Amino acid sequence: MVALAAIGILLGATLYFSSFGFASAYRRLLEGRGVRAVRAQILMIAAATVMFAPVLAQGAWFGREVIGAIAPAGVQVAAGAFLFGIGMQLAGGCGSGTLYAAGGGQLRMAVTLAMFCAGSFWASLEMGFWGRLPALEPLALGERLGWPMAVVLQLVILSALYALLGRVPGADADAPKLSAVSNGRIWRGPWTPAVGALGLAGLGFLTLIIAGHPWSITWAFTLWGAKAARTIGWEPGTDAFWSGDFQRDALDASVFADVTSVMDIAIVAGAFAAASLAGDFRPRLGPSPVAVVAAALGGIAMGYGARIAFGCNIGAFFAGIASTSLHGWLWIAAALPGSWLGLKLRDRFAIP
Predict the structure, then answer these.
(1) Preceding omega of 287 cis (within 30 degrees of 0)
(2) Which residues fall within 8 angstroms of residue 231, CB to CB, at 6 or more apart?
(3) Average pLDDT, the chain
(4) Torsion angle of alpha carbons 165, 171, 174, 178, nearest 10°?
(5) Which pairing describes strands 60-61 and 64-65: parallel, antiparallel, or unpaired?
(6) Is 290 helix (H, G, I), strand (E, B) or coil?
(7) Is the pTM here over 0.90, yes or no?
(8) In 3D, which of 345, 336, 218 has the Cα closest to residue 294?
(9) Can you list the residues of the chain whose pLDDT is less than 70?
């Protein structure tokens, strides 16, 4: 757990120094203002795919079981990812973005986080309904095609997407004007998205071999929401989802016994440390009161969407595709239209 906390701190610092956001990347893409951040995401997933494959193929690391992020690809994933896409544009941050922005001093992200927990807990009470909707059985390309073939196939697809994005009108609108580390001091940043992408992929691999599963974010928010509900009288034994062994044990234990909770807290701490080192830590609420309201609504939408989609931009998209799971590809295919709608709603709120 100490090692995972250290990884979480490094994740928070990497996210902050490279300003590695998913919501902002899709906003720039859909508004025709550049593709550099989205291409960095592709680089991150490609690097993680190559690193994950040998370990997932063996199913163990030095005798410890290791599993990928694999889930059914169905209606609930598509619906959840679409809702998450709306939410992250309203809130101005994704799952990981909420944590590192809060650590960097954006106080409205604390509002988003609270609503994220509430929405995620709400969705956990309705998992029975979503689980009855049509879905394919969990499918990992590595298990179906063999890991070498699956890795090659994913790298071909990712390379094609990377090249295709370079041909999008306005693709060079955010061409890099900085070196990898602009001022020569790695502990102060800023870093380019590509440096952040490779750093996150490497830290994601360390998470996989130490925790035994890929990096995830939003399970902790579901757990925190449930713990808060329990303090005001909710009884978990009446709900099928929370009657499961893993969920019940996590609810009864301390949050510091939960891997995802410890890493999420460490990410906030890492972002705070990075902002302080860079001299950028300035607590601020937001551009306007209405932006805070939008952040709250976005948090609810992301929380609900992430729970029913088996994760967010990290646990479902990044970790899912790196694990060669079909649901990861479905997640991003549904999240992008959701982001487009979220941008339209963002305009309604007049958020700068």
Answers:
(1) no
(2) none
(3) 93
(4) 70
(5) antiparallel
(6) helix
(7) yes
(8) 345
(9) 175-188
